[in-house]
Known about the structure:
- This protein is mostly helical.
- The chain has helices spanning 3-21, 29-40, 44-62, 78-91.
- The longest helix is centred in the first third of the chain and has 19 residues, at 3-21.
Amino acid sequence: MEESRxxxxxxxxVKSILRxxxxxxxxxxxxxxxxxxxxxxxxxxxxxxxxxxxxxxxVDETFAKPKKSAPLDEIGSDKVWEKxxxxxxxxx
Length: 92
């Protein structure tokens, strides 16, 4: 496996873990990041350069506007059920 592919997979793993466990921002957050950078043998600046875009992407993902859905007055109405029936019948 090529190193670039390993890097892509590593980023996906980190994103998945961050999505699942969340990101805790405390008053000691920068210090914790600095300690982690030191533990893995990279500079704090390099760690931030890697982590910041990932964290921003996950925050944007979390606060993204939902996709447009049926208006509230139509949810559960006969109109919605009729559209579902029509779609199922057209697929047969």
